[in-house]
């Protein structure tokens, strides 16, 4: 049987966030930064409790940005720190402080991710996801432009079956590899050793998939682990309830437009050196033949997942949250024996769930201590008199610059969300904070410059068929297009929908 973890292992690369090479110097810098905050005089309008919460905030931000320790183990650290601050400074009893620190783990976003991984496990274990991918590729034809478009659009149905962009990258990498090998293309290093020009077709195939993985991850509330977290922050900080159906309306149109733009752009930037490439199609046909007819378990899985998608898409009618749908439908997968607890347990990123829950508790701490309101006042004083559109653009560009230095969208969103929301609430424009935070959520997927910006990028980069400079040269222009389109979307389409 296949598993989500084995899918990523096929690429030959372990998740660097989970492997987490430790950097003692950065850990020391993080601790010193927090100590400096605590030793500085408490600014006017900020309580000592608020200052302590900002110290924890800065400590975690530095650790995440530098990857000083493995991402997963920051969860227990955060729970400990939030407990100590709320108990030692916030005046809570030790029991209440611990309950406060653990409150994020009861958030529906954490359980939504778990529920979606149940569905994803079924799609992988029954080979349904593989059958879908091979079916589409087998019928895409052999022309590079059409094949590339098929690969990019394939990411969207895969996003419904696999909530992990890393897993989707690991799933697609062997298909990309078979496609480029069939044309005689060699990895960049080998090509240069032989005095040959690296294959532009290989670069096109890999980068097109890399772009599409990131873009499809924006399109549905369950397409990436980042979005349930953003939805939880929206609910907590602005009161806005981002449902699954509404997420499709808000994000899918722009994501599809950007996918088509990326397709044209990459085909122009990496114009293939030939007109026909049959390898990917042949591999897909061979794999479909190996799978044989659709099994009963596959049909059951397809039916059950379809029920989940229908309920998610019609949540504006029945008002059932996406979490209860995912968990309820997932229970039927167990009932019919399609998946086992062992399979689900093996495929669920438990460490990530703990990090998400503890990060939500940190957000609660920053808000409860008054630090978020204080940050908002500071930002407003610095931007006083500026047009809202200019402030909006500056905040998004600043977030994008920070994102270029981080290996996780969550690592961007957690520290910046309170600042963004506090600033936008000061404009006294209904819905502005919601819109700005959602745009920042899309910035979390603006990882087109460097392989280390996202683990899915690293999976594709590990193939050796493109270089860092290829990402940089093609990525900077598309990153600007990407940010521009989301700003335009916020100021036109989302206004038309009545968001603000």
How would you describe the overall organization of this protein?
With 500 residues, this protein is mainly alpha-helical. It has a domain of 227 residues. It has 27 helices and no strands. Helix 9 runs antiparallel to helix 14 and helix 12 runs antiparallel to helix 25.
Structure characteristics:
mainly alpha; single chain; 500 residues
Number of strands: 0
Principal-axis shape equals: globular
- Following the backbone from N to C, one meets helices and strands in this order, namely HHHHHHHHHHHHHHHHHHHHHHHHHHH
Percent of residues in helices comes to over 70%
The portion of residues forming beta strands comes to: under 5%
- The parts where pLDDT drops under 50 for at least 5 residues are 6-21
Give the structural class. mainly alpha
Largest sheet: none
Rounded average pLDDT: 85
Task: Tell me the distance between the termini.
Answer: 48 Å
Rg over CA atoms: 23 Å
> What's the tally of helices?
27
Protein topology:
Elements: H1 4-9, H2 16-19, H3 24-39, H4 48-66, H5 74-88, H6 94-102, H7 108-125, H8 128-138, H9 144-161, H10 165-181, H11 188-193, H12 200-219, H13 226-237, H14 244-269, H15 279-291, H16 296-313, H17 315-318, H18 322-335, H19 341-347, H20 350-368, H21 371-382, H22 388-403, H23 409-425, H24 432-443, H25 455-461, H26 468-491, H27 493-496
Helix pairs in contact: 3-4, 4-5, 4-20, 4-23, 5-6, 5-20, 7-13, 7-18, 7-20, 8-9, 8-15, 9-12, 9-14, 10-12, 10-15, 10-25, 12-14, 12-25, 13-20, 13-23, 13-24, 14-26, 16-18, 20-23, 21-23, 22-23, 22-24, 23-24, 24-26
